[in-house]
Amino acid sequence: MPAQSHDLIEKSPEVPFVCVHNAGRSQMAAGLLAKHAEGKLKIRSAGSAPANEINPAVARVMDEVGIDMSQGVPQTPH
After folding, report:
1. What fold characterizes domain 13-78?
2. What is the dihedral of CA 27, 32, 34, 35, to 10 degrees?
3. Which one of 31, 33, 37, 58 has the largest count of C-beta atoms within 10 Å of its C-beta?
4. How far is CA 35 from CA 32, 40, 47, 56, in A?
5. pLDDT, tens digit (0-9, with 9 covering 90-100), for 51-69
6. Per DSSP, what are the bridge partners of residue 42?
7. How far is Cα 78 from Cα 76, in angstroms, rounded to an integer?
């Protein structure tokens, strides 16, 4: 099998979530999917104009469902 084909088979599917500020909706979506995907997917979230921090209300709500967003940082797409 060619190396390129082998690399494609070995990689996990990737799911991007993108919004403007990457401080709420996309972070929540990524966090929820990550919890349920159990490491089977590569999940990214980003924003076109990232905020300085994740919305504190979002972090509180996610904490209530067992998802720690304290280390989350809004970022631009790679």
Report:
1. Rossmann fold (3.40.50)
2. 140
3. 31
4. 5, 10, 21, 20
5. 999 999 999 999 999 999 9
6. 14
7. 6
